[in-house]
Amino acid sequence: MVEISDSLCSLFTAKIKKENGTFVIEIPSSEIKHGALTVDETYRIALLDSSSEAESTSPQSPRHPASQGSTSHDSSGPPVDEGEVRDVTIETVGDQGDGIAKVERGYVVIVPGAQPDDEPTVEIEQVQENVAFASIVDSDPRAL
Fold this sequence. Notes:
It comes from Haloarcula marismortui (strain ATCC 43049 / DSM 3752 / JCM 8966 / VKM B-1809) (Halobacterium marismortui). Residues 79-138 form the TRAM domain. Residues 50-96 are annotated as: Disordered. The protein is mainly β. The chain has a domain at 85-143: CATH 2.40.50.140. Helices cover 3% and strands 26% of the residues. It is built from one helix and eight strands, in the order ββαββββββ. It is elongated, with a radius of gyration of 16 Å.
């Protein structure tokens, strides 16, 4: 199993391509769009063998990983558990008007009633393979 550092900004799968005598790895536009990476910034890059378990993970943005629990998660499954309480940062609002936060490995947590830049404490209510649904248990004190 591959251990992933909490300082990891992004994790995605890409092929190395040869272009004009150099080798290129394309960064998915979603990594820029969601703020995991910024254009014209320098990043340290780690490459994992495609046969590792990390191949099945999705983009990640753990700049706000503040988990209050001490639960450890298998890197191939969801990084949250039902009933878990954690602090999240709402990054955007989805089509239905619900707040959307990303936690480890880019895993999405949907939080009804939350707005971008809110930092509520939430309880995970339902966990699916690619998304979890949570409710606010303590509002962001800045929003008061």
